[in-house]
Amino acid sequence: MSLRKNTLWNLLGSGAPFLLGAMTIPFLLNRAGVEIFGILTLVWVLIGYFSLFDFGLGRALTQTVAKKLAGGTKEEVSRIINLGLVMVLAAGVFGGVLLACTAFPLGMRWLSVSPELQHDVVISLLIASVGIPLTTLTSGLRGVLEAYEEFGNVNLLRVLLGLANFGMPAITVLIWGPMLEWMVASLVLSRFIVFLAHAYLVRQKTKFYWIKPKSHPEEVRGLLTFGSWMTLSNLISPLMVTADRFVISSVVGASLVAYYTVPFEVLIRFLILPAALTAALFPKLSALIAVDIAAAERLFKKSALLIAVVMLVICSVASVGSLWGMTLWLGQDFAEHSWRLASILAVGILFNSIAQVPHAAAQAAGNVKGTALVHLAEFFIYFPCLFIFVHNFGLIGAVVVWVMRAFIDMSLMFVLARIVFSGNKKGAIWAAK
């Protein structure tokens, strides 16, 4: 499939749910209230973040199954699929148990929830924990489908999940009113339905059966090795994107979270454009770096310039028009609390957008370790600064620190990309380790 078609499929998979979200978020905010909606956004983040408890096995399955399809037998393909799914299930159960064990302190103390909502939050987090194994299993099944190049089906299911993510809570509010437990239960039900759809499609490729990981140590080691550095980066990077709202809830209270998360969730959707391009760009860069480094560098520079120009226009409009847009969408009272945050966040979105191109280039060259170490270093700097700034400057402090981190991340990613294209021997050796 061409670069253009892959990009369009990725845009469809990420963009269609955003359109429904634009319609349902004002409804949920008005009917449920600022605090309940803020907690719902935290649950969205938790379910999405805990899906990373697949430990990179979804991506590892894509790579390993694709190799087996090219040169292995049908039995070998079936074995690696089922082995990987068993491992993903075990990882998902671990993540679900971890969330269940932390539900009580999260709801009662750590999120600074109003006393009348604390019990509801605990129950909702326990319900959300059931969705973690479903999410990780779906990640593994998606990896198998991508190995078979079923990109159309994968993105159609992504659209279905995204639509359900916004639509199902709105339906529960219409039926039962603003009850947090029903909203969260609808999210888990959505993930169960999407899981069944993925399983049905994979079942067309192979049969399912139980397999003991300890009976295939070499293949287990291969899957885990491939996903190890990717997992570190995948765990840390989303945490730095979303953990600020948990810090805000803990330091200044859950009642203010929505003023931050709503503009953030809108602006973060702008990243679907660079993400769609870099997802399609990744395999092309991987091939060119191996055979024609000059052509790879030209493609890299062209892509980076394209993203920079397009996103500069989009983010400038978002920053300048934030007050008008938030007022039109959510009303004057909400806009007064959030438009300044949106204006500053738009600058960070620009940095984050541009950074995706050198990030893709570094990983295309095999430097997954480099990007993971960059994110690890950022992690230890970002969180102390986040607590200090939120404590002293409130929501504005959180926004400023996030933008600063995005700028530093962009700069370091360009350093890694420069190592790739400069032909630096030391950098190449380091990247291969």
TrEMBL record:
It is a multi-pass membrane protein. Pfam families: Polysacc_synt. The chain crosses the membrane at residues 7-30, 36-62, 83-106, 121-144, 156-176, 182-202, 246-263, 270-291, 303-329, 341-361, 381-404. It is found in: Cell membrane. Its main location: membrane. Keywords: Cell membrane, Membrane, Transmembrane, Transmembrane helix. The keyword Metal-binding does not apply. The keyword Transmembrane helix applies. This is Flippase. It comes from Pseudomonas gregormendelii.
